[in-house]
Specification:
alpha/beta, TIM Barrel, Immunoglobulin-like, 7-stranded parallel β-sheet, 14 helices, 28% helix, FUC_metazoa-typ, signal, glycosidase, hydrolase
Amino acid sequence: MYQWFVAPLCLLLIGSCGGQYEPTWESIDSRPLPEWFDQAKFGIFIHWGVFSVPSYGSEWFWWYWQGQKFPSYVSFMEKNYPPGFTYADFAAQFRAEFFDPKQWVDIFASSGAKYIVLTTKHHEGFTLWGSKYSWSWNAVDVGPKRDLVDELATALRKYSDLRLGLYHSLFEWFNPLYRADADNKFNTTVFPTTKTIPELYEIVNRFKPEVLWSDGDGDAPDTYWNSTGFLAWLYNDSPVRDTVVTNDRWGYGSICKHGGYYTCSDRYNPGHLVKHKWENCLTIDQKSWGYRRDAKLSDFLTTDQLIASLVETVACGGNWLLNVGPTHDGRIMPIFEERLRQIGQWLKVNGEAIYNSSAWRVQNDTVTPGVWYTWNQKENAIYAIFLSWPAEGYIVLSDPVVSASKTQVVLLGYKPLSWESIKPTGLKVHLPQLVPDQMPCSWAWTLQLTGVA
């Protein structure tokens, strides 16, 4: 039961187990980001938990119902559930009877994503694996009676090349140990030392994730969570020390300041080049991260909108983490599946402008709106991705410096195109007249430019 305690004992006592990285932000932040993450560009976020049972309003259902007592949530419970019904009673209905991890992996792989991030535990505290530190508030003891994290991790590695990422909330809204520490202004650390830190060791040692997506600091500083101590162990001694990537949510004040890459805020998309690696996490359902039975079609981002977001994010140096919310019984709804598969169709044609690419010297064209640039060193090519097909039959790219004898322009998925130089710099590319069935893809289109200065 206490095996987790042996390896990190030195960490809990002195804050580090030795090694290249010390338990300070200066040292932790000096670690280079593993190269695979920047090359991957696109991942799938999965919000799944007990909140998927009421599937009303938001994945923050419990907090809005009993923490904030929002009238709409209170009314929903009064109309649909008997008096005395508790949030814990939802767990028995979280049975995941239709959960097929192989099917999930097929959908995720078809999207063109390179990694996933599964919520192993949200702020409600319910763990999707059989945690020894959950007091039976987990998917093995209640509800599905299955280790959902293990099943998905196993299927992911068996049937795909996707990398495993795990989300874990530091705090829990109504955990009495956390609330007691909060009442003590976080001068006591009972909750992190007996719950949060042991869970983190448990999921890293058992599942070996290559993304560890921390969240939910509960307004407590990183010193309360001993974040730098844990990260020093993660980077020095853990089984994923060479490949693991972490985000910036490790305590109040650390977001957009410390950690492996920055998330800054949900749906963070600055629209310009950011020097530090960052990630844009967003939801297909614009109003919730978890599944909502009350969602309307207009709440879902269209494929056009999603691809535009992907292109803008990558052009500005970010990764794109797109969220889906499965149902309580383990289904990924057709609208989510359709969006993911359509993104995959687009990437089959335009992927060389996305994967392994870097930000170019300009991110979007300074004359023509809706044109975003990336650069692929391996292909020695610049890519101009335009979000709408111009009615004029041509497109002006003002920023590339071209050569009459060397520059070639190819419409990805089609063939080389004719072009003419313009002054002072740039080129005018003549687009082919194509009927819909001849178009290389249905949403955004990419020009590959080689022989450009």
